[in-house]
Amino acid sequence: QVQLVESGGGLVQPGGSLRLSCVASGFTFENYWMRWYRQVPGKEREMVAGISRTSRSTPYLADGKGRFTISRDNANSTLFLQMNSLKPEDTDVYYCARVEPADSRVDYWGQGIKVTVTS
Quick one: what percent of the chain has pLDDT higher than 90? Predict the structure, then answer.
């Protein structure tokens, strides 16, 4: 079955960096667009960044542009999110997501990984 397992979250000080990883299994990873989302409890989940199958298109949430970099390793079925210059408002649960090609909607989610930015 499809599984998306995130790792790399944790506690970091403002201005610091984290690299999130998402290992995918149960499907042919290179055939799918992938995205990172984040969510604060009580709010809607928002897209942080997306990446095409061959890494040729990487739309970003405006607030993350220039600070966040999404990438992928198709050979190892792994999605990454490099987050630099982190701010306290980046504190969220971050989710890896697979995009259904037919309608560009998310059809599978990871379990989420907590990122806390605090001094």
Answer: 82
